[in-house]
Amino acid sequence: MAKEDYDDRELVRLMLRGDEAAFAQFFDRQFPALFRFAMSRLGYDADLAEDVVQATLIQATRKLATFRGEAALFTWLCTFCRHEISAVFRRRKKHQLEITGESDALEAALASLAAPDSDQPDAALRHDDLRSRVRAALDRLPSHYGRALAWKYLEDLPVREIAARLDIGAKAAESLLTRARQAFRTMFSRDEGALDDPKLSNDVRPLTGNG
């Protein structure tokens, strides 16, 4: 029997015996269809879809013994592929939440420089302390980092305007802002974990950037 004539059950049986030709046919036959399946669910991101399909096939080959042939092999593989796609979205959601949380705290800290004084003595003291820590952190940053953060979070400038002021491209400005935020967080967090202080959300109102 030519290898292209193997049905699903026979193909899996041969793979379980370690038949290299069967493995080659398995990947050659299933990869294109799974790739199309993943692409349509991952926003047509080809690199991501390829990674997902490779992970799918690896997981499936580890569990070949569970294939009973009650459904088509491709249908069985789609179950694994859906799990891999779900894992991608879970990781993305977690990453987005982490980024949002850090950004909100950073904006709140920087916003303290422009926040009005509170009428409450305790809150006023916290504001003064927070402003001192923010200024100290900014002073320790490279000057172009400090300017970029001030433009972004205090003047509420869009990235394209920051790029123009720095005489660089928009992508370079995005990259610089990312490095500046990381550097600011490192400097500021050295002061007793300031960015994790829950008082930030109560004492100052975060700014809203234009992106």
Task: Provide structural commentary.
The chain is mostly helical and 211 residues long. The chain has two domains: 3-96, Rna Polymerase Sigma Factor, Chain: A (Orthogonal Bundle); 112-203, Winged helix-like DNA-binding domain superfamily/Winged helix DNA-binding domain (Arc Repressor Mutant, subunit A). It is built from nine helices and no strands. It has helices spanning 8-16, 20-39, 46-62, 73-111, 121-139, 143-153, 159-166, 170-189, 199-203. Helix 2 crosses helix 3, helix 3 (46-62) packs across helix 4 (73-111) and helix 5 (121-139) crosses helix 8 (170-189). The longest helix has 39 residues, at 73-111. The N and C termini lie far apart (61 Å).
Which word captures the global form? elongated
Q: Do you know the CATH architecture of the largest domain? A: Orthogonal Bundle
- Classification by helices and strands: mainly alpha
Uncertain runs are 95-102, 192-211
The number of domains is 2
Radius of gyration: 27 Å
